[in-house]
Design a protein that fits this description.
It contains 6 helices and 5 strands; from the N terminus they run βαβαβααβαβα. The protein is globular, with a radius of gyration of 13 Å. The chain has helices at 12-24, 35-44, 61-69, 74-77, 93-98, 111-122, and strands at residues 4-8, 28-32, 49-53, 81-85, 103-106. By secondary structure, it is α/β, with parallel strands linked by helices. Helix 5 links the parallel strand 4 (81-85) and strand 5. It has one domain: 3-Layer(aba) Sandwich (Rossmann fold), CATH 3.40.50. Residues 4-122 form the Response regulatory domain. InterPro entries: CheY-like_superfamily, Sig_transdc_resp-reg_receiver.
């Protein structure tokens, strides 16, 4: 069984491309369109990495990340989170770190870099 990735992204285009790119790398993909869906999926499943859009409806990526870090289940609370944002310049690395985010990527997404980061955080072969 491959590593499991949750793609939390309200853009269908980005979600579809990321799903195709990561599926090709043999990752198992799950997706969510808003922060409430993210929290519901994380409650039910364990993921190896979460790709977290910062600007999502219902619950933004920063708040989702904080809530995941506060979970009682230690394995879920430690899931690596990679933020994906079109507003990277509006946040400092400290802002992401304070929310419990391990790494971040600006939009438009460099999919080669995305694959590299996912491999790093899942311990997959690079």
């Amino acid at each position: 069984m491959g590593k499991k990735i949750l793609i939390a992204e309200d853009s269908s285009v980005i979600q579809n491309i990321a799903t195709k790119v990561l599926s090709f790398q043999r990752y198992e993909i799950d997706s969510a369109k808003d922060g409430k869906q993210v929290m519901a999926k994380v409650a039910k499943e364990n993921y190896d990495v979460i790709l977290m859009d910062i600007n999502m409806p219902k619950l933004d990526g920063m708040e989702c990340s904080r809530q995941i870090r506060a979970l009682e289940d230690e394995q879920k609370a430690k899931t690596p989170i990679i933020a994906i944002t079109g507003n990277a310049k509006n946040y400092s690395p400290e802002d992401f770190s304070a929310a419990g985010i391990n790494d971040f990527m600006p939009k438009p997404i460099d999919f080669d870099l995305l694959v590299q980061k996912v491999k790093e955080f899942t311990g997959s072969e690079v």
